[in-house]
Design brief:
- By secondary structure, the chain is α+β, with helices and mostly antiparallel strands.
- The protein has one domain: Alpha-Beta Complex (Cathepsin B, Chain A), CATH 3.90.70.
- Strand 10 and strand 11 form a beta hairpin.
- Helix 6 packs antiparallel against helix 11.
Amino acid sequence: MKKTILLAASLFMGAALNAQNIVPGGGLDAAALSEISKGYEATPADKAIKNALASASISALTVNMENAVMMDTHFSDRVKTKGITDQKSSGRCWLFTGLNVLRAKMIDRYDLPEFQFSQNYLFFYDQLEKCNLFLQAVIDTRDLPFEDRKVDWLFSNPLSDGGQFTGVANLITKYGVVPSTAMAETLNSNNTSAMANLLKLKLREDGLRLREMNDGKKNGKAVEKMGAAKIEMLKEIYRFLVLCLGVPPTEFEWTRCNSKGEVVDTRTYTPKAFYDEYVSADLENNYVMVMNDPCREYGKVYEIEYDRHVYDGQNWLYINLPIERIKEMAIASIKDNTAMYFSCDVAKFLDRSKGTLDLANFDYESLSGFSFGMNKEERVKTHASGSSHAMTLIAVDLKDGNPQKWMVENSWGASSGYKGCLIMTDEWFNEYMFRLVLEKKYVPADILKMLDQKPELLPAWDPMFMPEE
């Protein structure tokens, strides 16, 4: 009887293996393990490395001492900025970066002392709008099966504190801006994970309740019922956001001082009036996002479905370009004292103590014995690299017209990196820079013409387009 059971089990397992296209014998048997283990020889060098790794991190042991000297901090061209912001333990780099671009222009135009917009004010509406975006998307996809890729993606990603520039533009256009004194940071705006976890749990539950209301009929009654239920759900979410972040102001008083500390005037503003007075930029129409994605065709426009912050706003749209075209525009913007929204794969070869991004910062190959030979396209295709963090591009160092290094203003606090900034070599820029947002006046006519194309729609789950944190 036991033999019969074992034979049946063996036949079942064999059928399962074949069904999954798994080659029998592909496991690690004793012979395979014996052959593999020959890859390690207990040489004195390997023993020394093993001993070192027992008490020191890989990062510490791979620091390249031949590149230990701090790079030159002189820049031929630099945007005037004042102050460093700090996103603390949150994924709001996209919001800090977008506001820092506008902040630099406002400080320069009005001769202000150090100044900050309220990130918390826009973050409140960002979270409320994203909750609405998810719930409305659940209503819109009500007739799709729960196993559908789009529905699965929605419930896998109901909310994030990350984002990108399109969200900055849509939120500011809709809600205006306020100075940091009008709505200060809170513990939960600076540390978003606990609040986000509760919101995501509630959104998933609310999403299920909405789908249960769908009767499958086309008379519109179910949609009307779902819409009314969504408003009630958003009431609960609004209350929770107030408890965590505070009540967003509808009116406030602000005293403007010049760089000498002298009072210029004191007035009462609404958030939209403050935006109209001190920013007044057409963020939705006067800025262009360009990207260097070697996996896709250059000279084409791409749009990412559901990659927006506001349901009635815009999807993320960008022009894909070779890196050299992007550099030309970046240099023109910096020379005109205009900072830019910039995003990259910040963790790669980052020396936090010096605040430098340099391919020579760490020697991983000598320690590991591995060789790492993938190019940028291959790293993106294999999920080894992608845009992870947004910062404000403010400086370039040119030699005979060619960039040698670049500098970004970061949002990790003034004590982080090099005086709150990060300096990157031009070689690092080539490999790990991905996105840049520019004013149209710095974009050549042939590139602007590309916006006349019908964008190619990409799915929201494409790994290249995860929110920047």
